[in-house]
Amino acid sequence: MKKADFIIIAVVAAVAGMLVFFLYGVNSDSGAYVQVEIDGIIVDTLSLDEDTVREIKTDDGGRNVLVIKNGEAEMSEANCPDGICTNHSEIHRNGESIICLPHKVVVTVVNEKDADEIDAVV
Length: 122
Known about the structure:
The protein is about 25% helix and about 35% strand. By secondary structure, it is of the alpha+beta class.
């Protein structure tokens, strides 16, 4: 291997290290709540501190089951054709989300500050 090869390997390793640090080090704070949106409208805000099971129904007959347990949220059931949202891992970090495209359901982890904010276009 030439000297240039070692330099390229070192640069790639440094960039990868910075990405891992940013994703897991800087954004490691857990959120306090999950916001449930259906078709872009926030319909519920649930605390990650309380274990609960919430059924989410949409106007088009969609049904998802959101489970909050041990400070993490997961979509345990869905009657959508692909079921991708049920295969998603548990979420607990601020900004993480689970999305069910067929039902237009988005579950996002937010911290206390974000839970009070209103997101609107005027």
